[in-house]
Amino acid sequence: MANDLMAVKEETLTTVETKIKEMQENGGINLPANYSASNALQSAWLILQETKDRNDKPALEVCTRSSIANALLDTVIQGLSPAKKQVYYIVYGSKLTAMRSYFGTMAVTKRLESVEDIFAQVVYEGDEFEFEINGGTKRVTKHKQTLASMDSSKIVAAYCTIFHDGGQEFTEIITKKQIDMAWSKTKMKVNNVQKEFPEDMAKRTVINKTCKMYANTSDDSDLLVGSFNNMAEDFDKEEEAAEEIKANANGNVVDIQAEDVGESEKPTLAWMEKGAGEERSRSSHRAGLLSHETKSYWLIE
Questions:
Q1: Which of 77, 94, 98, 290 has its CA at a distance of 20 to 30 angstroms from the CA of residue 88?
Q2: Residues 35-83: pLDDT tens digits?
Q3: How many helices and strands (H and E) does the chain possess?
């Protein structure tokens, strides 16, 4: 068993590392200066060794090698750190899925061109809160809280602002009704995390929504944004995962039922041809981005 696991590790990590090296040599990605892809992969592998499905079977036994390789590839393309809890892994049937935490979502968004900072806050009943809409863009003009108004049982909204391009703002505001609707999508019958930490979970929800919207309206390359979208970020999936993780004292991620994806067991490299890329106004020399001169990239199948 140990020898089989070592063989899977060697084959999978070698495949992913080879892919990453080729992409770097071709100018396909530029990882953060202090980011070590090798260290991230080793950290991820340690986590995967402890990850089990709903039936208490090891993820490395039940998941296809191609899904494992793609989950690891998505982790590195986005420059995520498993050790910093920026990403965690969930078993869906026989498929391993990498799921970004909201810490990871913020980290990836901050690597997009021109993003300077991300700020999120909840609005309580009794707060003085005003915003304006100009040309379809929201902007919070006033938010004043008092100690008396900071009551977790009286949250009325949450908002997130992404500061970019020297002071410009990208803001999304969601009401408590919208937050509850997002939380209601979870399959868990009792949402203990939301009840125990309503402010944090409300911020998590609005941060995920805002960052996703910003990434998909930015001028950044298809590779990073595609990887950003490819990684599970749906409200119901993330909240369910958070609940499942909290419910398991050993920290192992459990399976959420899904159909068997029927992928091959051995990861291979397949060439995906991109169409002639349009000239982009922004430089693509940043973490995890395709250069605008690059028209093709590898995917692991």
A1: 290
A2: 999 999 999 999 999 999 989 999 999 999 999 999 999 899 889 999 9
A3: 10, 9
